[in-house]
């Protein structure tokens, strides 16, 4: 069965993502002229976004990767207590850091990560996220670069997963309810 058969609704199309990513890349290039920012990609969801975004940035940038898991969270919810499962190799001190994230939901993960990175004496820390769900915010996080605001729905595609699937969809969408029901039945 084709993955696309599981999609109820496309929220952000491939064309829209491409256009917005190009704009964000230009904006970053303009804002960080002469500063060689360090883009920290949050694994695994932001990998697809990073790979398009970094190619849209017209200045020198370096990239590194960070893995984060949320303590005690479920597949679909976070707690704000984060565990670094993979840290960056790059020294963050005196660097202009741009965190590249897939989605800011409650904001708890980004709040904790910004606080953590700030203990490492960076020159600056900003957030660039593909998606944001402002209605779900529990803590204030300043997002300098945001691709799209999405409604309060669980979204998948373009790097975002449901149970590690659908990351390779080239758009952002919502799954049909029966997909969750089927998965629950399979898992017992
Ligand atoms: P927050 O700490 O802002 O509540 O959650 C951030 C993380 O939760 C994201 O990095 C992502 O992994 C996950 N998340 C939040 N909302 C969604 C969603 O709609 N779809 C998917 N696939 N993951 C989400």
Summarize the topology.
Blueprint: E1 7-12, H1 14-31, E2 38-43, H2 47-56, E3 62-70, E4 82-86, E5 96-104, H3 108-118, E6 124-132, E7 145-149, E8 155-156, E9 172-175, H4 177-187
Parallel strand pairs: 2-3, 2-5, 5-6, 6-7
Antiparallel strand pairs: 1-9, 3-4, 8-9
Helix pairs in contact: 1-2
The structure holds guanosine-5'-monophosphate (5GP).
Summarize the structure.
The chain is of the alpha/beta class and 188 residues long. It has helices spanning 14-31, 47-56, 108-118, 177-187, and strands at 7-12, 38-43, 62-70, 82-86, 96-104, 124-132, 145-149, 155-156, 172-175.
- Regarding CATH, which class? Alpha Beta
CATH architecture: 3-Layer(aba) Sandwich
Q: Strand pairing plus helix content: what structural class?
A: alpha/beta
According to CATH, what is the topology? Rossmann fold
Biggest pleated-sheet summary:
6 strands, mixed
Ligands present: guanosine-5'-monophosphate
Helix content: 25-40%
* Total count of strands: 9
Low-confidence segments, given as residue ranges, are none
Q: Could you give the distance between the termini? A: 22 Å
Strand composition percent: 25-35%
Overall morphology: globular
What's the number of helices? 4
Instruction: Write down the overall mean pLDDT.
Output: 94
Helix and strand sequence: EHEHEEEHEEEEH
Radius of gyration: 17 Å
User: Biggest sheet: strands side by side, in what order?
Assistant: 4-3-2-5-6-7
Q: Give the domain tally.
A: 1
Outline the structure in words.
The model has no long low-confidence stretch (mean pLDDT 94). The protein is an alpha/beta fold and 188 residues long. It contains 4 helices and 9 strands. Helix 2 (47-56) links the parallel strand 2 (38-43) and strand 3 (62-70). 31% of the residues are buried. Helix 1 packs across helix 2 (47-56). It has a single domain (15-150), classed as 3-Layer(aba) Sandwich (Rossmann fold), CATH 3.40.50.2020. A 6-stranded mixed beta sheet has the order 4-3-2-5-6-7. It binds guanosine-5'-monophosphate (5GP). Residues 45, 78, 101-110, 154-156, 160-161 line the site of guanosine-5'-monophosphate.
């Amino acid at each position: 069965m084709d993955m696309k058969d599981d999609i109820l609704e496309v929220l952000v199309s491939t064309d829209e993502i491409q256009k917005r990513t190009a704009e964000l890349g230009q904006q970053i290039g303009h804002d960080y002229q002469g500063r060689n920012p360090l883009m920290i990609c949050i694994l695994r969801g932001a990998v697809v976004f990073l790979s398009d975004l970094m190619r849209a940035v017209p200045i020198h940038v370096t990239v590194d990767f960070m893995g984060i898991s949320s303590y005690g969270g479920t597949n679909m919810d976070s707690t704000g207590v984060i565990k670094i499962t993979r840290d960056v190799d790059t020294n963050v001190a005196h660097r202009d850091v741009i965190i590249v994230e897939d989605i800011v939901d409650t904001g708890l993960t980004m709040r904790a990560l910004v606080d953590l990175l700030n203990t490492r004496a960076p020159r600056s820390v900003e957030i660039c996220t593909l998606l944001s769900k402002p209605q779900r915010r529990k803590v204030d996080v300043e997002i300098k670069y945001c691709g799209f605001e999405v409604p309060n729905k669980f979204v998948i595609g373009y790097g975002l997963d449901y149970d590690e699937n659908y990351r390779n969809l080239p758009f952002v969408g919502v799954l049909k309810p029966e997909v969750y029901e089927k998965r629950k039945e399979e898992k017992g």
